[in-house]
Amino acid sequence: MKPNKSVILAIESSCDETAAAVVVDGKKILSNVINSQVRLHAKYGGVVPELASRRHIETISYVVTEALEVSNMTLDDITTVAVTKGPGLIGSLLVGISFAKSVAYSKNIPLIGVNHLKGHIYAAQLENDVAYPYISLLVSGGHTELYIVKNHNDFTLLGRTRDDAAGEAFDKVSKLVGLGYPGGVVIDKMSKSGDETFHKFPRAMLNKGSFDFSFSGLKTSFRNYVIDKPDDFLESRMNDIVASFQEAIVDVLVFKSFRALKKYGIKNLVISGGVAANSRLREKALAEGKKHGVEVTIPSKILCTDNAAMIAAAAYHDDAQESVAGLTLNAVSRYYIY
Ligand code: KG4
Ligand code: ZN
After folding, report:
1. How far apart are the CA of 301 and the centre of ligand 1, in A?
2. How far is ligand 2, taken at its centre, from the CA of residue 306, in Å?
3. At what angle do helices 166-176 and 216-227 cross, to 10 degrees?
4. What is the pTM of this model?
5. What CATH number was assigned to the domain covering residues 129-298?
6. First to last CA, the chain
């Protein structure tokens, strides 16, 4: 197949996934290859930055080659290279950026540096045409944020977590009781056979009008709850306990998103980022959307967690002129979109 307009090769390496994708005209995903490092980091209960960057170096050329092969493209068909510029682990980001630079230089094509968070948000545009304005709930391992998105690249931050991100809370609680990494995936699975009404964990709403989040109190409350319980109780009731914990997170996320929709009179909600893969969050947000006449868009699970197709989508929708980077493109560990 020959490119018509835009054929983006996107590369993502901000954390523990080495990913590459080929996307045509910002929509058609020809390939979306993800090499997860989960098994490498699992025994440490979280991502070890030095190990992550080394693994990216080892795998990136295989991942990009596979993305090209699956898409039936060669580098000569690529019109633009897009790469995650930040936020993320500097050593990991630099692997993707260096690789992307070498492709852009050798093929003399534009290089776009993409904000990973915009990637998560634009993931929703790959499978749907999301109407503006919308409220965006971005929930990942490092971020929990609510935005109003009035138009392309017009983001206004409404609130963010004051401490832990939602994904981080899942991961830390899972580690605390030895359930494994990444915690969100494990807790989601266990909760399916758990009773979410088993224990009422606190819902931190902060003050009434705030769109900020806080999850560290919930984490402490979970710790205090399990700390003096006998082992046999924890073993037999762990599904119920984590289901109750998950429910507390989901309730706050859904409540605040719908409060923002109501306050600003908006009828579209986009939920994205790794935690948007959570079955209970998806179920509750979609049910609430039905109830209130709100169109709720959540990408497929594979497009919620880190991937490169979302980086291509953000690059395509971005103001191309502004974001075309030279070979001086550098990684940014903290990188905001508002
Ligand atoms: O977006 P992502 O892949 O990476 C970051 O940009 O952080 O998000 C990773 C986070 C992890 O904290 C992981 O536990 C969480 O997303 N996560 C989930 C689920 N799948 C991944 N959390 C809850 N339920 C899930 N099914
Ligand atoms: Zn992410």
Report:
1. 10
2. 5
3. 20
4. 0.95
5. 3.30.420.40
6. 38
